[in-house]
Amino acid sequence: MHYATSLALLTDLYQLTMASGYWKLGRSEQEAVFHLFFREPPFSGGYAVAAGLGPAVDFLKSFRFDASDVEYLTTLTGNDGGPLFDGGFLDYLSELRLTCDVDAMPEGTVAFAQQPLVRVRGPILQCQILETALLNIINFQTLISTKAARISGATGGEPVLEFGLRRAQGIDGGLAASRAAYIGGCAATSNVLAGKQYGIPVKGTHAHSWVMSFDDETKAFDRYAEAMPNNCVFLVDTYDTLEGVRKAVEAGKRLRERGYEMIGIRLDSGDLAYLSIEARKLLDNGGFPDATIVASNDLDENIIQSLKGQGARIAVWGVGTKLATAYDQPALGGVYKLGAIKSGEGEWEPKLKLSEQAVKTSIPGVLQVRRFENEKGLVGDMIYDETRGIDQRSVIVDAGDANRRKQIPPDATGTNLLVPVMRAGEVVVPFTEESKDKIDDTRARTQRELGRLHPAVKRLMNPHEHPVGLDIGLHEIRDQMIREVRWDFGD
Ligand SMILES: Nc1ncnc2c1ncn2[C@@H]1O[C@H](COP(=O)(O)OP(=O)(O)OP(=O)(O)O)[C@@H](O)[C@H]1O
Ligand SMILES: O=P(O)(O)OC[C@H]1O[C@H](OP(=O)(O)OP(=O)(O)O)[C@H](O)[C@@H]1O
Ligand SMILES: O=C(O)c1cccnc1
């Protein structure tokens, strides 16, 4: 999608005050590199599924301060009542066109803590003013695609229908959630606009109100079957669920006489394990062994896992609220940090932010991630500084605990996860108009990526940690920088 209006003001004011500062100091063009990453996978899980790059690229392509943006900025005042921004700076913004380089993990890539999902390199002013929107887009979509991957993992590949629009966080939240849920593994959405906009399959049943609007349930099913003979999933729990299933079987027989087949039934309350087992028997004995049982009602990955453990005969899972709102963790804490700045001599100077918590101390450099695998499977991921290359010792060191190290075996081959997306402000890969083929390819990538992960890393509770570490050369530089900063502060 190409945004019709500029979204350059979709930012925090402080990005613009810093930009104004860089401009006034004559530093706007100084080259810098920033990395977008998260520190903990969401939902206490072992991984995340990167998503949001498509819309992020659309945002970057449309990025400009148009006349109305600049006019608005002229109205902002400082605490002396005078204009907040200099006229010269606002002229600079109106002329500004992105010239930076962006590298990122393609959507559907499995990502782990500390790894850059996006790297932006270019004039510091440009890198800085992109922070908020990139975080807004990538954080939410990565969160939802990860939730969808967990839910789809729990169903063991049985289709998940995303039903979340009515509970989603507003209009854009609903659309973005449907998109990301599909990338993460959902089979379809009930969100028709998302279907149109992103080429996602749309599916649905009917609501209780349909049944309630008739005097009795049988009539409701028959009338629905007459109106929609090729889309019959009867919602059977308005009054008594198993009685509802019996009526659905009878309605299905009448439909069959007309040359159509009912798709199945939907359960939306009560004990879904018991009811699905009993409903299955009624459907099978009634001559509908192929009828599908759809279930919904505040489902999430944990309830689904429990239902499967109880032998539930559910074949299609409708999941709304807990998926589209990422109910148990409503935000991914992705951050965007400065990694290095180019000095006057044109050398990259790595930059470090210290923290009391080792894991929160930033990783300096111009970072890239290399994923290693051998014939046994994935070996581990290395975060390294592209300007220095990989140390020949081929060892990764945990970013939070220097005692945790792993040798990358010589038979392992590596692939860089960050791929070029923009060069000098121009999109260089086909992350352009969202097409059905494109989103289906992305969804397939997620499936391939998850298929390569060890099952223990995908475990819902207390997952095994996939090995991720800093290239030992980068670790030593960072360690030295930490010592120097601590020394300066007399620690
Ligand atoms: N066998 C089961 N094991 C575990 N959880 C279940 C089982 N059956 C249903 N659930 C889940 O338990 C919760 C049921 O909540 P609740 O009892 O409020 O729903 P209900 O019986 O459908 O009532 P309501 O009519 O208000 O929806 C839902 O999240 C549902 O998905
Ligand atoms: O439960 P979710 O995962 O959010 O899935 C969507 C829910 O939306 C619909 O009902 P709605 O919640 O509007 O009404 P109900 O609770 O009375 O069924 C539907 O029947 C599902 O239960
Ligand atoms: O089609 C459905 O069954 C549906 C759609 C949205 C929300 N709940 C259910």
Could you walk me through the main structural features you see in this protein, from its secondary elements to its overall organization?
This protein folds into two domains: about 25-55 and about 100-140 and about 335-420 and about 430-490, nicotinate phosphoribosyltransferase; about 145-325, Aldolase class I (TIM Barrel). Helix 6 (about 130-155) packs parallel to helix 13 (about 300-310) and helix 10 packs parallel to helix 11 (about 240-255). With about 500 residues, it is an alpha/beta fold. It contains 17 helices and 21 strands. The model has no long low-confidence stretch (mean pLDDT about 95). The chain has a seven-stranded antiparallel beta sheet with strand order 13-12-1-5-3-19-20. Bound molecules: adenosine-5'-triphosphate, 1-O-pyrophosphono-5-O-phosphono-alpha-D-ribofuranose and nicotinic acid. Nicotinic acid binds near residues 318 and 320.
> CATH homologous superfamily of the largest domain?
nicotinate phosphoribosyltransferase
CATH topology of the largest domain: nicotinate phosphoribosyltransferase
Report how far the terminal alpha carbons are from each other.
51 Å
Q: What's the CATH architecture of the largest domain?
A: Alpha-Beta Barrel
EC number: 6.3.4.21
Catalytic activity: 5-phospho-alpha-D-ribose 1-diphosphate + nicotinate + ATP + H2O = nicotinate beta-D-ribonucleotide + ADP + phosphate + diphosphate
Family: Belongs to the NAPRTase family.
Domain Nicotinate/nicotinamide phosphoribosyltransferase: 184-341
